[in-house]
Predict the 3D structure of the following.
Amino acid sequence: MRLEKCWFCSSTVYPGHGIQFVRNDAKIFRFCRSKCHKNFKMKRNPRKVKWTKAYRRLHGKDMTQDSTFEFERKRNRPERYDRNLAEDVLKAIPKIDKIRVSREEKHHKNRMKGNKAKLLKEAVKELEQGISLVKAPSVLEKDPSLTLPKIKVQVSQQQAEENHPMEE
Amino acid sequence: MGGKCPHRSVKKRRYSHKTARRTKFLVKGDDMVYDELKKPDEERKALPLDEDLPGMGQYYCLHCDRYFPNVAVRDDHFKTKRHKKRVKQMMGPAPHTQLDAELAAGMGMPDNGPKLMSI
Protein backbone atom coordinates (compact mmCIF):
# COMPACT_ATOMS: atom_id res chain seq x y z
CA MET A 1 0.00 0.00 0.00
CA ARG A 2 1.57 3.25 -1.06
CA LEU A 3 0.53 6.44 0.68
CA GLU A 4 0.84 9.28 -1.77
CA LYS A 5 1.19 12.96 -1.00
CA CYS A 6 -1.23 15.57 -2.24
CA TRP A 7 0.29 17.78 -4.95
CA PHE A 8 -1.20 20.93 -3.51
CA CYS A 9 -1.21 20.66 0.28
CA SER A 10 1.25 17.78 0.81
CA SER A 11 -1.09 15.84 3.06
CA THR A 12 -1.24 12.06 2.85
CA VAL A 13 -3.64 10.56 0.32
CA TYR A 14 -4.90 7.16 1.42
CA PRO A 15 -6.10 4.60 -1.13
CA GLY A 16 -9.65 5.30 -2.21
CA HIS A 17 -9.45 8.96 -1.30
CA GLY A 18 -9.06 12.09 -3.37
CA ILE A 19 -8.73 12.39 -7.10
CA GLN A 20 -5.89 12.26 -9.55
CA PHE A 21 -5.34 14.15 -12.75
CA VAL A 22 -3.10 12.73 -15.47
CA ARG A 23 -1.96 15.38 -17.90
CA ASN A 24 -1.41 14.54 -21.53
CA ASP A 25 2.34 14.36 -20.94
CA ALA A 26 1.68 11.51 -18.45
CA LYS A 27 2.47 13.61 -15.39
CA ILE A 28 0.33 12.63 -12.41
CA PHE A 29 -1.20 15.16 -10.05
CA ARG A 30 -2.81 13.74 -6.93
CA PHE A 31 -5.19 15.69 -4.73
CA CYS A 32 -6.38 14.77 -1.26
CA ARG A 33 -9.78 16.48 -1.54
CA SER A 34 -11.79 18.69 -3.84
CA LYS A 35 -10.45 21.80 -2.13
CA CYS A 36 -6.96 21.06 -3.39
CA HIS A 37 -8.22 20.00 -6.80
CA LYS A 38 -10.16 23.23 -7.22
CA ASN A 39 -7.20 25.30 -6.15
CA PHE A 40 -5.09 23.52 -8.74
CA LYS A 41 -7.71 24.18 -11.42
CA MET A 42 -7.60 27.83 -10.48
CA LYS A 43 -3.86 27.64 -11.22
CA ARG A 44 -2.93 28.77 -7.75
CA ASN A 45 0.64 28.42 -6.62
CA PRO A 46 0.88 26.27 -3.46
CA ARG A 47 3.88 28.32 -2.38
CA LYS A 48 1.65 31.37 -2.14
CA VAL A 49 -1.34 29.77 -0.43
CA LYS A 50 -0.92 30.05 3.30
CA TRP A 51 -2.52 26.82 4.44
CA THR A 52 -0.30 24.50 2.40
CA LYS A 53 2.76 22.73 3.73
CA ALA A 54 4.85 24.20 0.91
CA TYR A 55 4.09 27.72 2.12
CA ARG A 56 4.71 26.88 5.76
CA ARG A 57 8.03 25.28 4.94
CA LEU A 58 9.15 28.14 2.75
CA HIS A 59 8.32 30.79 5.34
CA GLY A 60 9.91 29.06 8.32
CA LYS A 61 6.65 28.18 10.04
CA ASP A 62 7.50 24.49 10.17
CA MET A 63 10.72 22.66 10.87
CA THR A 64 12.71 22.21 7.67
CA GLN A 65 16.03 20.54 8.36
CA ASP A 66 15.78 17.47 10.51
CA SER A 67 17.17 13.96 10.56
CA THR A 68 13.70 12.51 11.26
CA PHE A 69 12.68 13.42 7.71
CA GLU A 70 15.08 10.86 6.30
CA PHE A 71 12.92 7.87 7.17
CA GLU A 72 9.83 8.41 5.08
CA ARG A 73 10.86 8.21 1.45
CA LYS A 74 9.53 7.06 -1.83
CA ARG A 75 11.38 3.80 -2.40
CA ASN A 76 11.39 2.86 -6.04
CA ARG A 77 12.86 -0.58 -5.58
CA PRO A 78 11.61 -3.95 -4.41
CA GLU A 79 12.32 -4.91 -0.83
CA ARG A 80 12.62 -8.56 0.15
CA TYR A 81 10.35 -9.31 3.10
CA ASP A 82 12.23 -9.92 6.32
CA ARG A 83 10.24 -10.67 9.45
CA ASN A 84 12.86 -9.38 11.87
CA LEU A 85 13.33 -6.18 9.93
CA ALA A 86 9.59 -5.58 9.79
CA GLU A 87 9.37 -6.04 13.56
CA ASP A 88 12.22 -3.62 14.17
CA VAL A 89 10.64 -1.04 11.90
CA LEU A 90 7.32 -1.32 13.70
CA LYS A 91 9.09 -0.81 17.00
CA ALA A 92 11.03 2.18 15.71
CA ILE A 93 8.04 4.03 14.25
CA PRO A 94 6.53 5.30 17.53
CA LYS A 95 9.96 6.25 18.87
CA ILE A 96 10.83 8.31 15.82
CA ASP A 97 7.40 9.86 15.86
CA LYS A 98 7.85 10.92 19.46
CA ILE A 99 11.20 12.52 18.71
CA ARG A 100 9.79 14.38 15.73
CA VAL A 101 6.83 15.71 17.67
CA SER A 102 9.03 16.96 20.49
CA ARG A 103 11.35 18.66 18.04
CA GLU A 104 8.43 20.28 16.29
CA GLU A 105 7.15 21.57 19.61
CA LYS A 106 10.57 22.99 20.33
CA HIS A 107 10.64 24.69 16.96
CA HIS A 108 7.22 26.21 17.58
CA LYS A 109 8.26 27.40 21.01
CA ASN A 110 11.37 28.99 19.56
CA ARG A 111 9.33 30.71 16.90
CA MET A 112 6.91 32.17 19.44
CA LYS A 113 9.68 33.32 21.77
CA GLY A 114 9.44 37.08 21.50
CA ASN A 115 5.66 37.16 21.20
CA LYS A 116 4.71 37.74 24.82
CA ALA A 117 7.03 40.70 25.29
CA LYS A 118 5.82 42.17 22.02
CA LEU A 119 2.17 41.86 23.00
CA LEU A 120 2.86 43.44 26.38
CA LYS A 121 4.68 46.31 24.76
CA GLU A 122 1.81 46.91 22.35
CA ALA A 123 -0.70 46.81 25.19
CA VAL A 124 1.29 49.37 27.19
CA LYS A 125 1.46 51.64 24.20
CA GLU A 126 -2.25 51.37 23.56
CA LEU A 127 -2.97 52.12 27.19
CA GLU A 128 -0.75 55.17 27.18
CA GLN A 129 -2.36 56.48 24.04
CA GLY A 130 -5.93 55.63 24.92
CA ILE A 131 -6.14 56.32 28.65
CA SER A 132 -7.91 59.60 27.89
CA LEU A 133 -10.86 57.58 26.54
CA VAL A 134 -11.41 55.99 29.96
CA LYS A 135 -10.53 58.94 32.18
CA ALA A 136 -10.41 62.53 31.12
CA PRO A 137 -6.93 64.03 31.49
CA SER A 138 -8.15 66.60 34.02
CA VAL A 139 -9.65 63.88 36.27
CA LEU A 140 -6.45 61.89 36.01
CA GLU A 141 -4.48 64.92 37.19
CA LYS A 142 -6.76 65.47 40.21
CA ASP A 143 -6.84 61.85 41.32
CA PRO A 144 -3.30 60.52 41.74
CA SER A 145 -4.57 57.03 42.57
CA LEU A 146 -5.28 56.50 38.90
CA THR A 147 -1.63 56.13 38.04
CA LEU A 148 -0.63 54.17 34.99
CA PRO A 149 0.99 51.06 36.46
CA LYS A 150 -2.09 50.12 38.49
CA ILE A 151 -4.38 50.05 35.46
CA LYS A 152 -1.67 48.79 33.19
CA VAL A 153 -1.54 45.37 34.79
CA GLN A 154 -5.29 44.84 34.46
CA VAL A 155 -5.58 45.92 30.86
CA SER A 156 -2.48 44.11 29.70
CA GLN A 157 -3.86 40.88 31.14
CA GLN A 158 -7.11 41.40 29.30
CA GLN A 159 -5.19 42.15 26.14
CA ALA A 160 -3.16 39.00 26.45
CA GLU A 161 -6.31 36.94 26.83
CA GLU A 162 -7.97 38.60 23.88
CA ASN A 163 -5.02 38.02 21.63
CA HIS A 164 -4.50 34.43 22.64
CA PRO A 165 -6.32 32.76 19.75
CA MET A 166 -4.34 34.88 17.30
CA GLU A 167 -1.11 33.22 18.35
CA GLU A 168 -1.92 29.90 16.84
CA MET B 1 -8.04 37.04 -25.31
CA GLY B 2 -11.72 37.70 -24.94
CA GLY B 3 -14.24 39.25 -27.25
CA LYS B 4 -16.23 42.37 -26.68
CA CYS B 5 -19.53 42.78 -24.90
CA PRO B 6 -20.43 46.27 -26.13
CA HIS B 7 -23.30 46.88 -23.73
CA ARG B 8 -21.25 47.06 -20.58
CA SER B 9 -20.29 50.53 -19.53
CA VAL B 10 -17.33 49.68 -17.34
CA LYS B 11 -14.31 49.10 -19.53
CA LYS B 12 -12.90 46.23 -17.48
CA ARG B 13 -16.13 44.29 -17.61
CA ARG B 14 -16.67 44.92 -21.32
CA TYR B 15 -14.59 41.89 -22.24
CA SER B 16 -15.89 38.37 -22.18
CA HIS B 17 -13.56 35.85 -20.60
CA LYS B 18 -15.37 32.85 -21.99
CA THR B 19 -12.70 31.89 -24.49
CA ALA B 20 -9.98 32.19 -21.91
CA ARG B 21 -11.85 29.83 -19.66
CA ARG B 22 -12.56 27.41 -22.49
CA THR B 23 -8.93 27.19 -23.52
CA LYS B 24 -7.58 27.08 -19.99
CA PHE B 25 -6.62 23.43 -20.20
CA LEU B 26 -5.41 23.57 -23.77
CA VAL B 27 -2.46 25.72 -22.85
CA LYS B 28 0.64 24.12 -21.46
CA GLY B 29 1.23 23.96 -17.74
CA ASP B 30 3.74 26.29 -16.12
CA ASP B 31 6.25 23.53 -15.49
CA MET B 32 6.16 22.39 -19.13
CA VAL B 33 6.85 25.91 -20.37
CA TYR B 34 9.58 26.31 -17.77
CA ASP B 35 11.31 23.12 -18.89
CA GLU B 36 11.02 24.17 -22.51
CA LEU B 37 12.62 27.52 -21.75
CA LYS B 38 15.43 25.84 -19.84
CA LYS B 39 16.50 23.89 -22.90
CA PRO B 40 19.40 25.28 -24.94
CA ASP B 41 18.49 26.86 -28.26
CA GLU B 42 19.89 24.01 -30.39
CA GLU B 43 17.51 21.46 -28.89
CA ARG B 44 14.41 23.41 -29.81
CA LYS B 45 12.85 22.14 -32.96
CA ALA B 46 11.96 24.43 -35.81
CA LEU B 47 8.24 25.18 -35.87
CA PRO B 48 6.47 22.73 -38.16
CA LEU B 49 3.97 23.97 -40.71
CA ASP B 50 0.45 23.40 -39.45
CA GLU B 51 -2.43 24.74 -41.46
CA ASP B 52 -4.87 24.49 -38.56
CA LEU B 53 -2.95 27.01 -36.48
CA PRO B 54 -2.93 30.77 -37.01
CA GLY B 55 -0.18 31.82 -39.41
CA MET B 56 0.58 28.15 -40.23
CA GLY B 57 1.99 27.85 -36.71
CA GLN B 58 5.07 29.89 -37.55
CA TYR B 59 4.69 32.77 -35.11
CA TYR B 60 4.80 31.33 -31.66
CA CYS B 61 5.31 32.77 -28.21
CA LEU B 62 7.13 30.25 -26.09
CA HIS B 63 6.35 31.90 -22.76
CA CYS B 64 2.60 32.18 -23.26
CA ASP B 65 2.17 29.11 -25.52
CA ARG B 66 0.30 31.07 -28.18
CA TYR B 67 0.32 31.22 -31.96
CA PHE B 68 -0.06 34.42 -33.94
CA PRO B 69 -1.08 35.09 -37.55
CA ASN B 70 1.98 37.19 -38.41
CA VAL B 71 5.14 38.79 -37.09
CA ALA B 72 3.56 42.16 -36.40
CA VAL B 73 0.88 40.71 -34.16
CA ARG B 74 3.42 38.63 -32.35
CA ASP B 75 5.67 41.59 -31.75
CA ASP B 76 2.66 43.50 -30.46
CA HIS B 77 2.06 40.64 -28.08
CA PHE B 78 5.63 40.87 -26.82
CA LYS B 79 4.87 44.40 -25.72
CA THR B 80 1.80 43.49 -23.68
CA LYS B 81 1.63 43.47 -19.92
CA ARG B 82 0.43 39.89 -19.82
CA HIS B 83 3.47 38.68 -21.75
CA LYS B 84 5.90 40.68 -19.66
CA LYS B 85 4.36 39.32 -16.47
CA ARG B 86 4.69 35.83 -17.82
CA VAL B 87 8.35 36.35 -18.75
CA LYS B 88 9.05 37.62 -15.27
CA GLN B 89 7.31 34.64 -13.74
CA MET B 90 9.34 32.24 -15.86
CA MET B 91 12.59 33.94 -14.88
CA GLY B 92 11.80 33.21 -11.24
CA PRO B 93 12.06 29.97 -9.25
CA ALA B 94 10.98 26.67 -10.77
CA PRO B 95 7.26 25.86 -10.57
CA HIS B 96 5.92 23.62 -7.81
CA THR B 97 6.24 19.90 -8.46
CA GLN B 98 5.21 16.66 -6.83
CA LEU B 99 8.75 16.33 -5.46
CA ASP B 100 8.43 19.72 -3.74
CA ALA B 101 5.14 18.61 -2.24
CA GLU B 102 6.73 15.44 -0.89
CA LEU B 103 9.70 17.28 0.56
CA ALA B 104 7.35 19.74 2.24
CA ALA B 105 5.42 16.84 3.72
CA GLY B 106 8.57 15.72 5.54
CA MET B 107 9.73 13.02 3.15
CA GLY B 108 13.32 12.53 2.08
CA MET B 109 14.59 12.38 -1.49
CA PRO B 110 13.31 9.35 -3.41
CA ASP B 111 15.37 6.23 -2.97
CA ASN B 112 15.96 4.53 -6.29
CA GLY B 113 18.39 1.93 -5.01
CA PRO B 114 21.87 1.28 -6.34
CA LYS B 115 22.48 1.76 -10.03
CA LEU B 116 22.27 -1.55 -11.79
CA MET B 117 24.45 -0.73 -14.77
CA SER B 118 27.59 1.37 -14.78
CA ILE B 119 27.54 4.31 -17.18
